[in-house]
Please model this.
Amino acid sequence: MSNNTYSVFYIYSDEDNTWRNELEKQLALLVNEKFIDTWGKNRIHAGREWKKEIERELQKADIVLCLISASLFNDDDAMEQLKIAKTSEKLIIPIILRPCLWNISPTLKDLSPLPKNQQAISTWASKESAYLEVVQEIMDIVNTEMASKPEEKSLIKNTDMPDTNYFEHGYALLIGIRYEHWSNKVRPLNGTLKDIEALNSHFTNLQKAGYKQENIIQLTEENATASNILNALDTLANKTKNDPNASVLVYYSGHGETDGTNYFLVPYDFDLSQWRKNRTFHEDKVVLSKHFAQKITEIRAKKSMIALDCCHAENIPVEKNLDALNAKFLKGFVEELDTEFNDSPVERGGAGEMKKGSGRVILTSCQANETSLDLGTNGLFTQVLLESLSGAENIRKDGWVRLIDLMNYVPAKVSEKALSKYHHQQNPVFKRIENLGAEDFIICAYNIATAKSIIVKPEPPINENIDTMTKEEIIKLIDQDIDEALDALDKVFGDSNGTYNDLANEYFERPDNFNKATYRSKLKRFVKRKM
Model:
């Protein structure tokens, strides 16, 4: 083993060996490149004194990955190894595999586990995304350790992206609730968790938006309780209070309700039985519009955008809803927010006008009398929002995504796709304060290096020349981005080719176990035959 290779030791229960194997697969590239060398008890050879070998390898380890589940706490040998690692002051990285009360363990309670949102990997809609986030965090942690040892090599020599090239003024609160615990009463919102994962991945991507991980708060499923949502808004206010140029996004994907007087977001701990019985609710188990608005106004960021994806429908014939008065809820909730914002402006100049580029904006995924398509994999609204955040049809092409870019792209593109592909009416709405300065309201970067002027000439968005694409270019695009490829093929075939329409519908209505590699192969064969 090279002197520059970090030794990684696994502590885990035998019952979690399958989970450890999956993590090992994600770490394989780092092992092959000799950045790290991993060791677990699965490497003990027959005939060896296994306890002594484990102790020897643990003492040699630079990093200890502790794989957490209830099984770990019932494994005496594993817990003894954890105590030794703690006593030896090893760098311990806990990883939550399955839900358990890890935070009451004296050995673990002072440590910061992964994933960073402390949501067990087993509960993620996409396990691969969870493992990828864990591996990226491990790389960051190890790089930080290595930075203090100049003779050691770093896992990633990222000369194009120095630490100063974050979008340091970007903050986000991402809330998504699938309502899996109500699955026998209400249709789960299958796309919400994937929406949150996709947004978090975009914002923390150091080649794209460049937000700092600590500036993003993510709440999903059981973590998205009423109290946690309100507390997260307080945390966001504290994080931004000393940043005069802060730009804040609060994104909510879940249900909304009204009793005709009160308008509220439906958190994970909402009492559905009580609501169904007599249309009443406990105030501490909902997020009332007035409380939500008050918390938002306490965030003294120069720029804030609230995106609401609340009134869900699915592209299937039968659906279970909350029996919500969607039109009344969305209209009332937004009006209360707008009233509160008008009463509490962000920042004013000497003449009583908002300073250019300051203010708050509300974006809803549809009009009050419409529903927002949940496609099962992602919501249509979030798909298009991510396209815009990634630079699609960007006006200045300077690396930054501004409010004006979203306003020009999102409503028109969602409306177009909803109608042409799903025969559905969905029209996102921006409700904004006057004099907002949309042209200078920066949301994030789509290419942080370009935005920070590290790259002089930005690359055009991938779909800029869609109308003139050749067959070979579209086949290449299928490998890069299926959505963009289908957009290009729409220009060629539209609704005129039944085989293409079937292929497009197969992708946009894909199930959770959809095999993209097989689909790409099928789509390429179609392009080769028909173009």
Summary: The chain is about 40% helix and 15% strand.
